[in-house]
Amino acid sequence: MMPSEDSRSTMQTTAVQGRIEGLRFVGLTGEGMSEEAGFFGRLWANQHGKQFGISATAAGASGILLVACMYQILFLQDHADWNEFTGGAIVGAVLSLIVFLVAFPEFLRFRGYVALLEELKEIQSTAELRRRKAEGVEAAEALGAGHLEQWNAFLDKRGVKR
Questions:
Q1: CA angle at residue 55 from 123 to 135, to 5 degrees?
Q2: How many CB atoms sit inside 10 A of residue 67's CB?
Q3: Tens of pLDDT along 119-144?
Q4: Under 8 Å CB-to-CB from 151, ≥6 apart: which residues?
């Protein structure tokens, strides 16, 4: 016996709602998992204005450590004087890779904001600058550390009203 059209429609709707709920649980629908930031989220938010420097330092240092550990693992583990450091190099490589995978995207995001501000400051057309002013404000606010004041001073110098 075939289900009726109404029950088929109800089953499809239920299946779609179940998939959406599953996506919400995983956090893929664009909604936050919770209204409050966790410990690390609050700690990171408190560093506003220093985030670009912190992410650049963390990404650079972890990248250098990762290269050094990989050199030990690939080339020095069979060397008589260096083979006892292989275990530490493996642990260091794993830890530095984790830090690198967390810090490098943040560094790229902030570097993109810096590049955007530099690009906007090179624009000669006042109309184009007015049109893209909101992008500059967003980038300067994200960077913190006086970038918004510099951006507003640049706009005043160019005669663009805030």
A1: 25
A2: 12
A3: 999 999 999 999 999 999 999 999 98
A4: 117, 136, 137, 139, 140
